[in-house]
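Lab notebook: predicted structure, single chain.

Context: the supervisor wants predicted structures on file for every construct in the current expression panel, including those that have not yet been purified. This is the next one on the list. No modifications to the sequence; it matches the entry in the shared construct table.
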Amino acid sequence: MRMTTCRKMAWFIIGLIVGCIGTSLAGPIAVANPYATIASRNVFGLNPILTELVPVAPEPVLPRIVPKGFTTILGPETVLFEVVDGPAGKAAARSLYALKSGATQDGITVLRIDGTTGIITFDNHGKLQQIPLAAPATAAETKP
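Prediction complete. Output recorded below exactly as produced.
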């Protein structure tokens, strides 16, 4: 009986020595940040934090479209609108247009004219815009 106890004790000591040698070969354990191994595994596929700011190009100033009205007198619906180039509130170049649905001029395309709701859909240099017609001024509003 003593012999089996001694053999068990010897195997225990050999296992303990092998375990200690194996952990020392694995490298030191980072005590400063216990979560460092989690970040190195990147289980969730997270992107690293950006250290440089990527400059974003400012959006170009699009000309302002002011619908004046639409007509069906000469056939298909035609929208009448004014294009104001330049910043709001300052003197700017103004141009008047009369285009049918689907027509393009100077980078502005009339996509749809809805006569019942008064909303006109424009493609203003690649940006879709739905612009309603302004309500007509009444006689009471025009009196000084």
